[in-house]
Design the sequence.
């Protein structure tokens, strides 16, 4: 039987589950030798602010939270200064803080998440999705490549240079 996969806004009662998933991801990055997320960000306060601001989204598998991501519309000041060039200057969805529960790791969940994010973007009539990641986050770089995101240059974010990508959706 196929699993039912849905994306929805995160709610206050999801907070502890989301924070647990993020902590797993922080530890996974550390074990992979990545510098990403090793300086006390993201933290529980980040999660609370995401939920409060309506940025937090979860992807559920049969009702169980499998993936967390923050989706922010048109607002990432760091993206104003790109060493390179974006594909578009219109409205965009920014994807931040993607984290997968260990239980669901290795099941292509982030690819499915990006499908949902692209549907979300399209349904809101928004032109593109922009995302950045650490140069040493190999897993995410591979996913972005597989989902046909275009490398646009580098942005300075959270104390470091990040590779920035964009995909035109509509």
Sequence:
């Amino acid at each position: 039987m196929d699993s039912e996969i849905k994306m929805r806004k995160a709610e206050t009662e999801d907070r502890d589950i989301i924070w647990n998933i993020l902590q797993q991801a922080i530890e996974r990055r550390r074990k992979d030798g990545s510098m990403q997320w090793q300086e006390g960000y993201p933290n529980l306060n980040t999660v609370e602010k995401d939920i409060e601001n309506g940025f937090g989204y979860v992807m559920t598998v049969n009702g169980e939270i499998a993936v967390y991501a923050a989706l922010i519309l048109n607002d990432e000041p760091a993206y104003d200064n790109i060493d390179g060039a974006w594909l578009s200057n219109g409205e965009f969805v920014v994807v931040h803080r993607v984290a997968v529960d260990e239980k669901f790791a290795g099941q292509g969940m982030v690819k499915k998440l990006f499908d949902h994010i692209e549907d979300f973007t399209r349904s809101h009539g928004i032109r593109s999705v922009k995302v950045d990641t650490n140069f040493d986050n190999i897993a995410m770089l591979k996913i972005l490549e597989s989902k046909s995101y275009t490398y646009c240059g580098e942005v300075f974010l959270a104390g470091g240079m990040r590779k920035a990508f964009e995909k035109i959706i509509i």
Notes: The first helix runs from residue 15 to 31. The longest strand covers residues 64-73.
